């Protein structure tokens, strides 16, 4: 898929784009800062690394990726999130699902050559589509990990969990489309209880219990599983989840991806809503979609029109959008929203 290849390569060199791989409740993220020194840079081979983390997409797998662009509601009524999910068919997406700490040997496929002698351990999270690993050369940590291999890291009596939090080994998320590596500290007591800026990991046991491949608020077709995500710059919040002034260019760039890669009916629905607004239709004359993702698309369209109207709309249009939001964008409906920045 030539268009997807171009999209991935273009965003790989865009410092405003983030990437993630993992599963619901366990995610490794790669972010880069403008001008940050690159330790590996081969966009044609889908590789990027800094001193803080790395990403590599498997060039042989890229053409099998099925992309799904989507937007999700934020619990905060003036915001939303968006991403491009990088999916494979269910049968191709299955991970090893190891459920105990398991030594895998030297990480010979590490992005940086300097990391290829370090030893990789599957953490044993039994994720549906990702092997979530740690990597270390620390002899003290290696001794603890090897002594407790075959045990669950969630066993309160297993000292390996505490040793990992203390030593801050690299984390490596391995999927059928590639890997994300994080070299920074694990978010916790040593980082003030939050994840550090830039590449970081989230491990959220309460979400892992759901044993899902992705959030129920993400419109991924049943025959596909998301293994990774491309996160273009968000027009209303930064990478740490803080509000920013509405960025029209970033909004337009994602809308282009949305038109190309979203579930086909959702951009059509957006056009219907925009047409109704342009004709000054009152909200009570509009029938909301029966589908949950259609209803979310309606709400998202209204949030975006609200932000656009703040900058460019007339008072009459702002009032019309406000009336639609009173009917369709109920801020109390938090079940359809996802946390914007878990761990931050």
What would you note in describing this structure?
This protein is an alpha+beta fold and 344 residues long. It has helices at 2-12, 90-93, 139-147, 159-167, 205-208, 248-261, 265-278, 292-312, 315-328, and strands spanning 18-23, 26-30, 38-42, 47-50, 53-57, 66-73, 80-89, 102-106, 119-122, 131-136, 170-175, 178-182, 200-203, 224-231. The strands form two sheets. It has an eight-stranded antiparallel sheet. Strands 6-7-14-1-2-13 form a six-stranded antiparallel sheet. A hairpin with a 4-residue loop joins strand 3 and strand 4 (47-50). The mean pLDDT is 94. InterPro entries: DUF6925 (IPR053838).
Q: Give the ordered list of helices and strands.
A: HEEEEEEEHEEEHHEEEHEHHHH
Strand arrangement, largest sheet?
3-4-5-12-11-10-9-8
| Share of β-strand residues | 15-25%
Give the CA-based shape.
elongated
Sheet bearing the most strands, described? 8 strands, antiparallel
* Head-to-tail CA distance between termini: 35 Å
Detail the poorly predicted runs.
Answer: none
Q: Report the mean per-residue pLDDT as an integer.
A: 94
Rg over CA atoms? 21 Å
**Tally of domains:** 2
Query: How many β-strands, per DSSP?
Result: 14
Pfam families: DUF6925
């Amino acid at each position: 898929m030539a268009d997807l290849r171009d999209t991935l390569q273009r965003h790989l060199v865009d410092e405003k784009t983030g990437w993630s791989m993992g599963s619901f409740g366990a995610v490794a993220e790669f972010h880069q800062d403008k001008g940050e020194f690159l330790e590996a840079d081969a966009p044609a081979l889908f590789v990027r690394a800094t001193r803080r983390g790395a990403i590599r997409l498997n060039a042989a797998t890229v053409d099998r990726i099925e992309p799904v662009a989507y937007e999700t509601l934020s619990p905060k009524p003036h915001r939303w999130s968006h991403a491009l999910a990088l999916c494979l068919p269910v049968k191709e997406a299955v991970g090893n699902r190891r459920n105990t700490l398991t030594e895998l040997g030297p990480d010979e496929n590490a992005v940086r050559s300097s990391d290829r002698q370090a030893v990789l351990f599957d953490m044993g999270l039994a994720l549906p589509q990702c092997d979530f690993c740690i990597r270390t050369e620390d002899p003290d940590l290696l001794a603890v990990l090897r002594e407790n291999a075959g045990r669950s890291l969630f066993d309160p009596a297993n000292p390996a969990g505490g040793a990992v939090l203390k030593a801050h080994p690299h984390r490596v998320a391995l999927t059928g489309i590639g890997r994300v590596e994080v070299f920074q500290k694990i978010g916790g007591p040593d980082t003030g209880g939050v994840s550090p800026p830039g590449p970081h990991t989230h491990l959220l046991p309460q979400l892992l219990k759901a044993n899902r491949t992705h959030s129920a608020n993400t419109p991924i077709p049943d025959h596909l599983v998301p293994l990774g995500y491309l996160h273009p710059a968000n027009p209303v919040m930064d990478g740490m989840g803080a509000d920013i002034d509405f960025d029209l260019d970033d909004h337009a760039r994602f809308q282009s991806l949305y038109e190309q890669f979203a579930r086909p009916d959702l951009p059509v629905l957006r056009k219907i809503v925009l047409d109704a607004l342009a004709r000054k239709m009152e909200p009570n004359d509009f029938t909301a979609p029966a589908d949950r993702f259609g209803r979310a698309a309606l709400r998202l369209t209204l949030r975006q029109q609200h932000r656009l109207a703040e900058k460019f709309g007339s008072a009459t249009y702002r009032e019309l959008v406000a009336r639609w939001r009173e009917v369709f964008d109920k801020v109390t409906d938090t079940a359809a929203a996802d946390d914007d920045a878990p761990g931050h």
